[in-house]
Each structure stands twice: as C-alpha cells, then as structure tokens.
Specification:
single chain; alpha/beta; 2 domains; five-stranded parallel β-sheet; about 40% strand
Length: about 425
Amino acid sequence: MAFALIGILGCAALAVDVGSWRYQQRLAQTAADGAAVAGADEIVYDSTQISTAANRSATLNGFSGFVSQVNNPPLTGHYAGDPNSVEVVISKPQSNFFAGIFGISTSVGARAVAQLNSTTTSCMYVLAPPGLNPDGIQMTNGGVSTSDCGIVDNGTYSVGGPATITAPSITYYGTLVGSINNSNYPQPTAPATWHAATPAPAPGPTQADPCSALPACATLTNDPPNTTTCGAFPNGSPSQLTASGTIHPGVYCGGIKINGATVTMTPGLYVLTGQGFNMSSGNVTATGVSIYLAGNSSSITINNGTLNMSAPTTSVSYTPASGGSGTLPPGLLFYQLPTNSNQDNLTDGNASCSTSGNFSGILYAPGAVLKVTNGAFSPSTLIVGGFSMTNGVTSCITPYGPGSVIERAAIVE
C-alpha cells in the first residue's frame, strides 16, 4: 500500500498539478498578449509609457508584478530589433497540490510580441453611408493635407484636376476614379495619374465609425444633452445675432445665426436646435467650446467670416436629457447626429492653422456631406459621411490625442 500510494500521488500530481499549470500558462499568455498590444499602442503616443501601459494591462489580467521584461524593440525572435514592435515576457511562480511532495517546483511563463500595423493613425474618416452623394471623397481644385495621420475613405475616391491630397497614408474601399467629370481635365489614361495624391491611394478595408473611441463623442452619443430649456441672445433674438456681443453655453432653440457681428462664445457646451450654426460674414472667437447640433434639421453653414474656434482642453459640465448633471470630456468641436444627413457648407471662410487653435477639435458629422468651397478650414479630426471640395484648403489636420485611434497593434509572436 505504501508503494502504491507513491504511484497514486504521482498520478494525482500529473493529473491535477500539470492541468493547473497548463491553465495558468494560458492565463499568462492572455495577459502577455494584452500587455504587448497595450505597449505597442503607446509607440505612436508616448514611447516612455510603453512599459507602464504593458504592466497596467497585465495587472488588469491578474498578473500584477509578474512582468519580467518589456522590450522595445524585442530582444529575441523574428522581430528582434524592430522599433515598431514590443516584446513582453511574464513569469509567475506556480503553487502545487501534489507535485511538492516530490520536491518539484515550477513557474508558468509566456511571451508575446505585438507590432504596429502602421505608425500612422487616421484623423480624416469619410464613412460613406448608403445613399449619400458624394459617397466618398470628391475634389476639384483645392487641397487637403494631414501632418502625421492618415485618410480613410469608405466610398469612391475621386480627386481630379489640379486638386491635391497629401497624407502619410490614404486608403479607399469603394471605387478609384480619375478626374471628376470636367471638360478641362479629361479622364487620364495611365493608372499612375488617376489621382493627385501623395502617397498613391491604396485599397483598404472599411472603417467603422470611430466615435466610440473618442470619449467626448461617445459621451454625447450615449447620454445626449437636454434640448428643451431655451436660451436667448443678448439682443433678445432667439435665432439671429446681428449686433456684436458675448454669448454663453446653453440651449438655443432655432440655432445660432451670426450676420456680420463680432461674437465671443464663452467656454462650454452649446446645444443648437432648428437651423444649427449659421454664420454669414462676421468674426467668431470661441475657445473651449463644444457645439451639439440637435435633431435632424440642423447643420453647419459658414459663408465668409473669420473663425477662431477650439474645443475644450478640459472636461466641461452639461445637463443630460436623462436628468442630473453630466461631464463632457475634452476634444469635441462640432457634433452632428449620425441620422442627420443635412449637408454642411463651409464657404469662403478663414480658419487656417497658421496660428495654434484657429479651428481645432473633432468635427463629427458621420451621416452628412461636408462641402468646402474656397476658404480654409482645419479641424483636428474630421469624421464625415462624404467630403466635397472645390477651391478650398483643409490642412494641418492632426489626430486629437490618445483615443482617436482604431486598434493598430496586432500580435505577431
């Protein structure tokens, strides 16, 4: 019986302990995978935070204090020396049920390497919902440029004539066409001249609406503001401001219409019903402002004038329709409902990026066409249904902070 008991305990150790080790090793592998992806995502934003992000992810997966290595670039494997990859090694001592009787001790470990698919995030999304015209990017004359972020076009990519578009990456899902139907710029014959873009646009997958990854956008989608308590302009008009003055956050039933006035908008959330935001000449200074276009009849119309508008850089308070009080994260300049297909028109305006903050923040109108004609407009991040430009300039577009990304890192080892 004594000799048999040794064998029984050995079998128990094999069945119980080895199974437990295997289970713990799978948990460790999951934690290593998540930590590597978290670390790799930080390459774009702040490389000094790679180790911090990896350890935070491991902690969330139950392996706090057991990350033995975070290497960028990896030290071993196929991706050793690759600056766009992060290697994470996890090692955790494992307790035993029966194997300790035989003097056996062990630890579980896992290794993972995540690589960025691209060091370029996107900041101009043309989502091309069904039935929209144009259903993608359409440009005749004018120019679009982004400094360090890509352009995603879910629909038709049509850039013709002397129009130019420059970005670190340009992808389209729909059709690549040549010059727009214009007798002055006939259809090119060589594929290399089907676009006036740097680099050449490349086929790519469709991009989902990135709103859920943008804290301010996600907040207004999930908990929209109250739209019933109407405010008024200083001159008493509920919908038009012709005299210069200062206006404050609140609900503007009928929207905001500025006609030749010099207007200062104090920081906070402006909720606009009716026509939305309409400017005909004039001068607007709005620092730390978010504008929410309520309902499906609102839109953005800017015809002449000078804009100096920037989104909040810190959270602001607002009143949700659900009641109580809410906090809107920073970063959002304009929010138009996804169900609102009213075209937004930016014509002959001046909001260049020559001075910091002239037109910074997320412009979100995923169900509408943004039409730029003449003028200069430079949002930080642009999310629209369709994009049309003639003789305009949309430049210096940059991604708004961490969170304005889709996941770019993937496990490769």
